[in-house]
Amino acid sequence: MRYKATFRPTYILDPTANVWDPLDSDMMHRLSARRWVSMAIERALEVPTNSLTVFLQSDRATTSNFRKELDMGPRKFKLALEYINWHNQEQDSEGKEASDVFHAGTPGALSLEELEEKVDLGQWNLKLGQRVVKLENLASWDGSETSDASSIKGIAAELAACIGPELVQKTALHFG
Asked: Under a CB-based contact definition with an 8 Å cutoff, are residues 146 and 121 in contact?
């Protein structure tokens, strides 16, 4: 969808602050270099991200060149470290691969806890040919976990987290 960047003015949603930032040449450069960018975090740090990356990867002998980075203080330094490390992170804090909706931090999706609180997945309809059944009536339903992305319960949970409780009530799953 890079063609959309040619339309002006164009904006991109910040994944952490849910605010719109201009999709200009600076932002395009940042997005080309990294998987995701949060201008809200970069503005809070008041230090260019490329400088932060070099600073955090440098040794003690070369850090004296980074006066602004050294003066940022412990809170900003921790935020910077988390921000830079998140770009390269392949696993979440529990050691699970960040491949499913719940562990990848998908913007706009319900967390697993919110999903379990707001949605009764077992009541979601599943269309099987001409029949419609409740998911809870599937043989493997009770033995599986919503956090298991390879089970039917986990697959339904990920989809429900993305579309929300209102659409879960109004729709039926159909795999075909």
From this structure: yes
